[in-house]
Design a protein that fits this description.
alpha+beta; six-stranded antiparallel β-sheet
Length: 124
């Protein structure tokens, strides 16, 4: 199924969507864990039942979300969202590759799921 990218997602909407999907059973499969995570850049992948949603964020372009059309339709209906689609700034192959490459040691030496819970205030 064709994947597309929502762009310019307001930070509060982006963050609330991540939290609500996590609480509804989506699993954190990968999380950017460098010191600037959530400050000026962020990246994570959520998965559930063979589906994946990729999230990118920076303080200039705000949130981006990449997934298939079917999953977007479900998200937009469930959360009553009107998303704008277009060419991403952060969820592009070069940035994704570099983000994953440079954070590889951190992903194995830390606990990305724990880091995610702490960053998004889900420790309780």
């Amino acid at each position: 199924m064709k994947r597309k990218t929502a762009i310019g997602v307001e930070t509060s909407v982006w963050k609330n969507l991540v939290i609500n999907l996590y609480r509804s059973g989506w699993v954190v499969k990968e999380k950017y864990v460098n010191v600037d995570a959530g400050v000026d850049f962020d990246f994570l992948i959520l998965k559930k039942k063979g589906k994946s949603i990729w999230f990118g964020w920076d303080y200039i372009d705000e949130g981006e979300i990449k997934t298939d059309e079917y999953t977007f339709a479900l998200i937009q209906e469930k959360f009553d969202l009107k998303l704008k689609f277009g060419a991403p700034s952060n969820l592009v192959p070069k940035i994704i590759f570099l983000t994953r490459l440079f954070t590889l040691p951190g992903r194995f030496s830390s606990n990305p799921k724990k880091f995610f819970k702490e960053q998004f205030g889900l420790t309780k």
